[in-house]
Design a protein that fits this description.
This protein has three domains: about 90 residues, Creatine Amidinohydrolase, Chain A, domain 1; about 150 residues, 3-Layer(aba) Sandwich (Creatine Amidinohydrolase, Chain A, domain 1); about 80 residues. Helix content is about 40%, strand content about 15%. The strands form four sheets. Strands 10-9-8-6-11-12 form a six-stranded mixed β-sheet, sandwiched between helices. α2 crosses α3 and α12 crosses α13. The protein is flat. The two termini are about 25 Å apart. The model has no long low-confidence stretch (mean pLDDT about 90).
Length: about 325
């Protein structure tokens, strides 16, 4: 949070030490969860007192977060919250800003997914029909990957790729960098009647959706588009706000959570394979420490475990960076959920 004369960083206990080392005297560190330490929302509301307006990049917060923050700001005497369409940090970063990852996207075969794209789209459209919706704008990356049986590597340790999708009763559009898709993959998506458009085209296309929704409804009850409760404030604003948008629990998220028989068996088998890798690792570790009297550090242990996992069938990558430790006073943190 940046003001004309202050700057604050809010983070949780995992990063207190790192933040304290990396921030200089210009920054205030808000240690989330500690007694008498304000949340970033409370701090922001406090500094807005006196009629100040708070700006935020609406692509980075949800509509509900924006609404609650605006209420806090006004209660503290601030003017309100404003969506800033051009991220000011990006302007400062300029040409030095790293480019968005562009890792190849691959198809997830039906022998792993257990259900083809067409069937998933049919099921989703049935849900839209029940609720008389104009369509569902998908922004959750894991839901897009699941819906179209695709996997990527744009985010470390996550099999997803930067994208949006729009599914209506008679169309499905995937907004993604087409350079990530092989020709075969493009043809496969086309065969499933999925249109591919550039990632950046989504917000321009929302203008067309808004016009269509108003034309298909009436002034008192226009047809609405659905977005997930986890979607961005920017997406809701682009689609016409409360007038034309309804935030719902994602039907894709619900469908993804109910595993079919193929997915269930895949989960069982991957745990068996990973269990075998761990057992082999523990045997190696015992031999190194007790027989060879070897001295191992955290990196040695993590590298060996990854090496053994790579030997297993269908290995793609780790789900998180291995957290290992050594020594009499070591503390080993569990993986994030």
């Amino acid at each position: 949070m940046i003001t004309l004369d202050k700057a604050a960083l809010s983070t949780d206990g995992r990063y207190f030490n790192q933040a304290a080392k990396q921030l200089d005297q210009n920054w205030l560190l808000l240690k989330t969860g500690l007694q008498d330490v304000p949340t970033w929302q409370e701090w922001t509301a406090d500094v807005s007192a006196g009629g100040k307006t708070v700006g935020v990049d609406p692509t980075l917060i949800s509509p509900s977060t924006a609404e609650k923050l605006c209420e806090k700001i006004k209660k503290r005497g601030g003017a309100g919250l404003e969506a800033v369409t051009e991220n000011l940090v990006d302007l400062v970063w300029g040409k030095a800003k790293p480019r968005r990852p562009s890792e190849p996207i691959v198809a997830l075969p039906e022998k792993y997914s257990g259900k083809d794209i067409e069937s998933k789209l049919v099921d989703l459209r049935k849900e839209l029909e029940k609720k008389k919706s104009s369509g569902f704008v998908v922004s959750m990356l894991d839901e897009i990957a699941w819906l179209f049986n695709l996997r990527g590597n744009d985010i470390t340790y996550n099999p997803v790729f930067f994208s949006y999708a729009i599914v209506t009763p008679d169309s499905a559009t995937l907004y993604v960098d087409i350079a990530k898709l092989s020709q075969d993959l493009q043809e496969s998506l086309a065969a499933n009647k999925v249109t591919i458009k550039p990632y950046e085209a989504l917000f321009e296309d929302t203008k067309v959706l808004v016009t269509a929704a108003r034309a298909n409804g009436d002034s008192t009850n226009p047809t609405k588009y659905f977005i997930s409760t986890k979607a961005s404030w920017a997406l809701k604003l682009a689609l016409g706000g409360d007038e034309l948008v309804e935030e719902i629990r994602s039907p894709i998220g619900d469908a993804k959570a109910v595993k079919n028989s193929t997915e269930l068996e895949g989960m069982r088998q991957c745990h068996i394979r990973d269990g075998a890798a761990l057992i082999e690792y523990f045997a190696w570790l015992e031999h190194q420490l007790l027989e060879k009297k070897a001295t191992l550090d955290e990196v040695d242990a993590a590298d060996k475990l990854e090496e053994l996992r790579k030997k297993q069938k269908d290995y793609v990558g780790l789900s998180f960076d291995t957290i290992s430790s050594t020594g009499p006073k070591c503390v080993c943190l569990p993986p994030l959920p």
